Amino acid sequence: MSEYEEAGYYADYSDDELLPEHTRRPKTLGVLAGVVLLLAGSFFLKTTLAANISLNSNGVVQFGQGQTATTACSGSNNLTVTPQSSFTNASGGGTQNFSSVVVSGVPVSCYGKDLILNAYDASSNSALPLFASTATDIVVLDNNGTFVISSTVTGLTIVTNSTTSFTVTFTSPVASSASVYKLTVQSVENRILFCSNGGTCSLGDKGPGGGTIVFAVFAGFPCGANMASTCHYIEMAPHTWSGLSQDPSITPWSPNNNSVAGTSPNVGAGYANNALIYAAYGSTACIVGSTCTYAIQAAVNYSNGGYKDWFIPSQYELRVMCNYANGNSETSTNTDVAQTCTSRAGSNAPGADSFVSNAVYWSSTQSTTNTIYAYDQYLITTTGTGSDVKNNSNNSAQWNFVRPIREF
């Protein structure tokens, strides 16, 4: 007895003679039949654990699939798995190949989990190669209703159809339709790296701290309290960072007219700037709009995603944010070169990235000509205004808006 039979079920629908004559499949296969699966959990891939199987009732069975059913992220929810085929023409003939698969009915309990799909033939315990010549595992992360594959995987593409469904398509299909006898799906803890959990980041990605990546320099740039570290990304906090519906307006920048020596305008210098200012004026408690006695303190006391290394950006970091918000290209990837930004209505500013229109935002860089002033920046405006300087002391009660960033 085979191990499929020992597991309680052995399904073989590959023989057309088992079907009534009027329902036999054509020689050139079309769209493959769907199958409803209970999502499998922790089990050996080579073992079929259960038999509850439901095939489409359209009279044409083109793949035979057994079903696996164990406790997993889907619980009692059924997944619908629909394999599809395409014909690859060739001189003197051609091949009908397993070309794509649609999975639907994925519940919210699978958020943060990897779904692993495999295909098997009728006689072997080894998973069939499906794409990239020899690759057998289709690994899909359910990233809170958005389905993604690792950026390092080639030979397949993925489309999120809805928060419960996705389609995987093989660039160059490997397995013939006739060889695919069983499909399995299992869920495991996430092993795909993407920006928010340690993978490579790109502009617009969700960062580890729950913000948005607005700058990415893969060669790295100096950063940190002593500018001795190397960072690659700038992550900008969401506009609700303070607990309000928009960025807060905070005064003053610092508590008095005393200057803080050593602030820099450069990209990467913001954390060091904030550390200098906070060392001079730090406070023990801070609630935005209540006990935050100055703007720098509000940013330094922010925490999100388990990260408490947020700060008010430097002058050029603020311009990087402006460029991202307005869809501008950076003037240079050399972070010591002054960034410039013409603020407009903003092409990347809706939702979590939205800024207050026609408002200026504090930087952590003091003016070089008068140290009781600090640089600021219009991020979204219809006036085309660029950077500015505002009094950074409590004597003038200058109100500017605040948006923290972090770098890693």
Report the average pLDDT across residues: 78
Distance between the termini: 57 Å
Rg, nearest Å: 28 Å
Task: Work out the helix count.
Answer: 4
Determine the structural class based on helices, strands and strand pairing.
mainly beta
Q: How would a crystallographer describe the biggest sheet?
A: 6 strands, antiparallel
Low-confidence stretches: 1-71
Number of strands: 18
Spatially, the strands of the biggest sheet line up as 2-1-3-4-9-8
Helical fraction equals: under 10%
Query: What is the ordering of alpha helices and beta strands?
Result: HEEEEEEEEEEEEEHHHEEEEE
* Binned strand content: 25-35%
What overall form do the CA principal axes indicate? elongated
Short structural summary:
The chain is 8% helix and 28% strand. The protein is built from 4 helices and 18 strands.
List its traits.
4 helices; disordered N terminus; 408 residues; four-stranded antiparallel sheet; mainly beta; elongated
What does this molecule look like?
This protein has helices spanning 3-6, 270-281, 295-300, 315-326, and strands spanning 35-38, 54-55, 78-90, 93-104, 113-120, 138-143, 146-148, 156-162, 165-170, 182-189, 212-223, 229-236, 249-250, 360-366, 373-378, 387-391, 400-401, 405-407. A hairpin with a 2-residue loop joins strand 8 and strand 9. The chain starts with a helix and ends with a strand. The chain is mainly β and 408 residues long.
